[in-house]
Amino acid sequence: SPPEAVTRASSAKMANFSGFEIDLNKYQKVAINPFTTEALTPDQAAAVQNNIEVCRDAIIFFTACGSASGYGGHTGGAYDTVPEVVLLDAFFRACPDKFVPILFDEAGHRVATQYLFAVLDGKMPAAELKRYRVGHANLPGHPELHCTPGVKFSSGRLGHMWPFVNGVAMANPTKISICLGSDGSQQEGDDYEAAILAVAQDLPVKLIIDDNDVTIAGHPSQYLKGYDVAKKLEGQGMKVAVVAGEALEGLYPAMRNCMVHSGPYAVVIRRKMCPGIEGVEGQCGGHDAIAVAKAVTYLTNKGHTAAVQWLEGDAKKAEKDPQAGDYLGTKGSKVGANRALFGECVVKILEGMSKEDRKNKVMVIDSDLEGSTGLKSIHQKCPDVFVQSGIMERGNFSAAAGFGMEKGRVGVFSTFAAFLEMCVSEITMARLNYSNVLCHFSHSGVDDMADNTCHFGINNFFADNGLDEHHPSQLYYPADFHQLEQCVNTIFWDEGIRFVFTTRSKLPAIQAEDGSELFGGSYKWTKGKDDVVRKGTKGYVVSFGDALYRALDAVERLRAEGHDVGLINKSHLNAVDEETMKLIGGTGMCLVVESLGRKTGLGIRFGTWLLERGFSPKYGYIGVTKEGSGGLFEHAYHQGYDSKSIQAKAKSML
Q1: Rounded distance between C-alpha atoms, residue 438 and residue 350, angstroms
Q2: At residue 650, does pLDDT exceed 90?
Q3: Which residues contact 238 (CB under 8 A, 6 or more apart)?
Q4: Within 10 A of 585 (CB to CB), how many other CB atoms are there?
């Protein structure tokens, strides 16, 4: 077997560490055989401790670059798990025949780990790390196979990896498969099922779980009383060891025992989030990309002067939408965050009720995303109807549906649009039970989606999967903050399941031809009605969401060139407005532009609606067709629903 001694990096063959302000040449290629090494030698322990420091300094630096550039990111999870990852790296090196040498991770936000080790393995130049999450840099917010050199798997959404790793173990029964977990990811229902299968089949799967008592919106020990990762796994038959994560003398024996054990085994590693980082340790904010100021303090204390200079200088050079500030039809408009406004609208409704009445009629449940989906304002102002729950979208949705089963009651549920796909079966169950649920799915589409492909909210029409005679399911995608407010106020007490979709990005107020705010003032939003944003005689573009203001710019520029094209805003996605059908049908062209999936969005059905009514204009549709480019605004250009792409498609149809 490979030697267990400490060796220097033989400069990690082919590795290019230049242009990176943390010296990665200090990382030592340690080889430790856990099957024969009962305790670390002093030299091994010193080398491992050195590697921990090198990796943590590097992670602080390049994730802070994401903060400086405005692309954001996540520091805490990757920073936390460095000790166990460094040990696993040493195990892989010593015993390549005994391990599937992949650091599978069910918490995709810890992607910094994958990027750093891709560099240490010589698969990518270290300087690239400073472009963390930048568009087209191939360093998106989650690991994606075939996107980043050296990345060996796609993590998908939180808590979805362990069942997959069970299959890897089945395919490699003589080797150990590793799955890095967390107390957040372990809340997902997939992991309950994965534990049962791993135990039943005695799979060689090892769970290495960071139990830092922090998720995005709080501390599980406070909002999920009774939840205990170790006890949960033990109850499912797993062998479990609980250990403190910051002391090698305890961590190594626990990791070793895990590897030596023949079947499934979990090491639950308890520590505070971001241990040792001043002003961040133990805080929920540690989950996100570390603020530049805090990174500067940390790196200064470590003597990394060059890294500090980069963060305070070149790292702040951010990419910007080349058309920013020059979109016709919204130029100079106020912008609003519809995802945050949703919660404020609900608060106004609740505050108009007596406490007794709202407690009896309304229940709002969160899935650890209250700050991202707008429910935080409800939590703060109407805590009597708010349930702070965990990362359990399917169960939380069903709880909302159960509450709303009685006539006159409504369950309010919210999460990201990407996770709607996880709730489809529960949505069907709610529909069969005639439940009343108001669902807010934020982060719809792809705009500003730095977390990339696995977080694309592009299959929103999956929600409308019932039969014609079923309890109604209505899909709404308001154009701007004016429409959002009117929409929520109008539909709050409707029966059935209502889905309100919003973007991660802020949206500008849509302007009328005279420059006034089209949906402000005396405008009244009406269910089932489309909005004629611009009238045209030659054809119409039909759009909604963040694609609408881009389409408006395209239409204005086409009209300036003499093409009399109109624009329709379709905020009620699954309702047919007969007047709109006649209007479009009387022209020669219809182009649907959306940031939903081209295979499942509005485009695949709008043409059918026209044909059913005897209209046959030249028809086309633009939607999301590609894996993500990373970044923020870049997705619109990458997918081809930017203004110039819309103009080109429209011209080809006129």
Answers
A1: 14
A2: yes
A3: 195, 198, 199, 207, 264, 265, 266
A4: 17
**pLDDT digits over 263-291, tens only?**
999 999 999 999 999 999 999 999 999 99
Helix (H, G, I), strand (E, B) or coil at 59: helix
pLDDT in tens, 20-38: 999 999 999 999 999 999 9
Please give the order of strands across the beta sheet that includes 265-270.
Answer: 104-105, 177-182, 205-211, 265-270, 239-244
Q: Which residues pair with 215 in a beta bridge?
A: 218
Q: How far apart are CA 365 and CA 397, in angstroms?
A: 8
For residue 7, name the pLDDT band (cuts at 50, 70, 90).
Answer: very low
Residue with tokens 């009343």: 436
Residue 589, Ramachandran bin (φ over 0: left; ψ between -120 and 50: alpha; else beta): beta
Task: Give Cα 466 to chain centroid, integer Å.
Answer: 27
pLDDT at 470: 86
631's tokens: 């970044």
Asked whether 47 and 28 are in contact (CB, 8 A), the reply is yes
pLDDT in tens, 208-251: 999 999 999 999 999 999 999 999 999 999 999 999 999 999 99
Q: What is the CA radius of gyration of the chain?
A: 26
Q: Which amino acid belongs to residue 521?
A: G
Residue 6 has pLDDT above 50, yes or no: no
Residue type, 90: A
For residues 395 and 393, give the distance between their C-alpha atoms in angstroms, rounded to a whole number: 6
Quick one: which of 21, 113, 116, 52 has its CA closest to 276? 52
Question: What is the C-alpha to C-alpha distance for residues 142 and 452, in angstroms, rounded to an integer?
Answer: 7
DSSP state string for 168-235: HHHH-TTSBEEEEEETTGGGSHHHHHHHHHHHHTT--EEEEEEE-S-BTTB-HHHHSTT--HHHHHHH
Are the C-beta atoms of 588 and 649 separated by less than 8 Å? Answer: no
Backbone angles phi, psi at 389, to 5 degrees: -115, 180
Query: Are 540 and 579 in contact, with CB atoms under 8 Å apart?
Result: no
Closest-CA residue to 485 (of 613, 352, 344): 344
> Residue 13: is it exposed, middle or buried by C-beta count within 10 angstroms (0-12/13-18/19+)?
exposed
Residues 6+ apart with CB under 8 A from 516: none
Q: How far apart are CA 191 and CA 172, in angstroms?
A: 20
Instruction: Classify each residue of 370-385 as buried b or exposed e, where b means 16 or more C-beta atoms within 10 Å of its C-beta.
Output: bbbbbbbbbbebbeeb
Confidence at 471, pLDDT banded by 50, 70, 90 = confident
Question: How confident is the model at residue 2, as a pLDDT?
Answer: 33
Q: Are 90 and 48 in contact (CB under 8 A)?
A: yes
pLDDT digits (tens, 9 = 90+) for 568-605: 999 999 999 999 999 999 999 999 999 999 999 999 99
Residue 14's pLDDT is: 61
